[in-house]
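User: I'm new to structure prediction. If I give you an amino acid sequence, what do you actually give back? Let's try with this one:
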Amino acid sequence: MSDVRDRNESAWLLTPDGSREEPRLREQMRTFADTDEVDIVIVGCGAGGSTLMQRLARAGWSVVAMDAGPFWRPESDWVSDEAGSHHLYWGESRVIGGTDPVPLGSNNSGRGVGGSMVHYAGYTPRFHPSDFSTFTDDGVGADWPLAYDDLKPYYSDIEGELPVAGEDWPWGDPHSYPHRPHPVSGNGELFQRGALALGITAKVGPVAIANGRFGHRPHCIYRGFCLQGCKVNAKASPLVTHVPDALDHGAEIRADAMVSRVAVDERSGLATGVHYLYRGKERFQRARMVAIAGYSIETPRLLLNSASTRFPDGLCNDFDQVGRYLMVQGAPQTAARFDEEVRMFKGPPPEVSSEEFYETDPAKPYKRGFSIQTVSPLPITWAEHVTAQGHWGASLRHHMSDYVHWACLGALCEFLPQANNRVTLADETDRYGLPVARFDYSQCENDRMLLDAARHVMEDILTAAGGKGVITINRAAHLVGGARMAADETQGVVDSDGVSFAVPNLLITDGSVLPTQGSANPALTIMAVAARAADRLVRRTSSAHSRRALA
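Assistant: Good question. You get back a string of structure tokens that encode the predicted 3D arrangement of the chain. For your 551 residues, that looks like this:
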């Protein structure tokens, strides 16, 4: 644990009861003037932005990180209630289209410091080595301009900092986790029972939830409200895992600051800072470098809204790559009723999973694959499942009163990147007068085959466990892509270090840079990519003098 503390002391910068960060961190937070030319301004304080901020602050950089949402105080701002947690989602207007439009909000967008990791399920598997070469190996998707081994040490570092708890992992690059697995609740036990009956390997974890005290972070109390913001701070999110350490090393977080445009000098072609809206006024923060970490909808939107004479079609969009290849994962959920009480809401929503179907199977008609996890929808979300089956009125009430007898599994299907699945600007504007994002999405035939295959496997597992009355709802989760990394500027927006091809002092360090998404939850990979980008950046610019020379 000492090596973790040496590089990230966030878990020890909470009050002894773990309820909040030490008050001095906010009360005495270093602040900068707009006229100060800081080393870097970061747009977004989610998985990628907060990791980058913490790493650069530790390296002695002057850092301002802006977020359009609040700087949350879990003990007062969050509640253990579904309906009372909607303010954690990005609720600004967006337009959706395509043949398979993707609803945006609760499970794929965050608002405020910590981003969508504030309300993610806490599941943090690694991508597999094969994810980085799907085009070479399988003829689909895209090859990354880096390999699994380039991220491996950063995966390990972040797993220690969150921390991650789980059994030894046999899939992809087999590895262990720094903390022992959590006990399994009723939903997980049924998954294990059905998987064992079918000869399918299932493992507990990996969850980024403290199992026992970690620094001043408390133990998980298994109350089941991970998706509503962990009020007890046992679940990892950047708000508790990287933000405190960043503040302790001199970073400033400027919350409720909506960045409207990245400024680029027309002569030098370098970014000079960001225009933003704060307390009703337009302001401009000067910076030697700019990093964008607004995630897969807002990052392309900001680039497109930053058009100029030099970039008439949007910043970094010389080759029409901004906004393209945006992906979701197919995330069907299958449930079954059991005679005994299951109480699936107890414990973390994902506890047990299998990646046995993750890789391409030459015997199947589709490429790539899917993973399966326990999921545990709370009553409002469960009601959506039931109404999707056509139940209403008395039938809906009957199913809801029977809630404690149901178990539910979810799959993550690797949908393929397609150029026309993209973000553009809509004619509609938001409350700031900025054009909102339009996200068009259509599934391909491979996507649909994966959905069907995953549904059949989940139905088989629950039936083998003794479940009856199986029902499935199709849904989507986990946005990635939209400003992908590539080998050259004709195929993507940034290089393998997250540096823009078009603007050499502009970085993108969020999920938008991922060329493919695998069948794994992306949070850990986003953080690892950002940690690597920070490491590479610090090595290239090892002194204040060289940073100024770069800019």
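You can read the tokens as a compact description of the fold. Here is one thing that stands out. The longest helix spans residues 445-464.
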